[in-house]
Amino acid sequence: MSQDFNAELHARPSIYFAGPAFVEHLAFMSRGQNDPVIDRLKTDADALHIRTQVERHTEFVTITRVVQLDADAHEWPVSATSSLGTDGISEADLICRIGLLVNGAAPAELGPSLKQLGFQETAASSIGGGAAVVCSDFRVRPGEGSRIALFNNDLNAYRLGRMVRRILEIETYRSIALMGLPEARRLAPLLSEFDARLIELSDRNLTIPTSEHKPLLDEISALSARVISATAETRNRFGATAAYAQIVEERITELRETHVPGFQRFGVFVARRFKPAVRTCAATALRLDQLSRAATHLVDLLQTRIQMEIELQNTIQIQAMADRAATQVKIQRAVEGFSVIAISYYLLSLLKVVFETIDHAGYHISPLVMLVSIPIVIATVALTVLRVKHALEHG
To answer: What stretches pass through the bilayer (predicted)?
Structure first.
């Protein structure tokens, strides 16, 4: 595993070369390990004896070719651009195509040379502590892509290769980072719709009666699902945009730019037009996250409100049940009292019949016995009822 980690340090080698050259760079979305386009481009490079470097990144592939020139080119080498065709690569998969011309030392007046090369409104910077000058108008020409000119004042083959690599990476990562911008533009009207809908649902949550809570909860849940779906669809793209933008900024810093009189700096031109797009993507991602949180919070608030009302209803029902139970207890106690009286009455009536029968039989019983038996019978019945009740409660 340590070998794999160490190999990663050497996974992006530069193509080292010296002297005038034309470097063509192509970046397109990856279609798997067995891509016939890559095989074709490698085969063409071998047939033309052109140095070619293929790099597989996480989601895209880059191919870089170097064609050595016999002398400085005062016009754009159109014939050289045909060495790297885009046959088999759809417009949707193509990220960027760059032609980079490397000439000798920069002339005292850049304007005429850049005009001969077909540049318009050019940005230029002295890079590498004055060791080279990089120029570009950042215009994409049909069939050629964008053009960059590098005037080599004092770069050896190794430094030149690394500098060219940084410039190509700036353009490549800048282009692929901007793939998030169409998504941000597509989401802009949806986010406005989500905002308005969320405000409407929030206002309704404050005023609706209890009977309409369930439909409102369904509507809020549906909105939350749409926001979460949009977030999931664009999370990777916006995350990649942020990562690629950071790489672009790092590569611009590594150029160590200084100002060329009469021209806007290369890195400043990129940053002024690139950063607003990146910020738009970041703001869209943040807005999606905030909408998702707000919708979830509104769902929680409504669920809490519904739960509190349910608990209030349960409390009222429990109180009503407790009142009914208390009334039943009172009724039960009243019934128990009546039961003692009724049973005692029947027992005393039975004893009276017994005493009268005995008296008719000729055996006289004192009325005091009947009088004494009354409290005894009542006490006995009451004790019996209490024991039965106790047995039922603890049985």
So the answer is: 334-355, 361-386
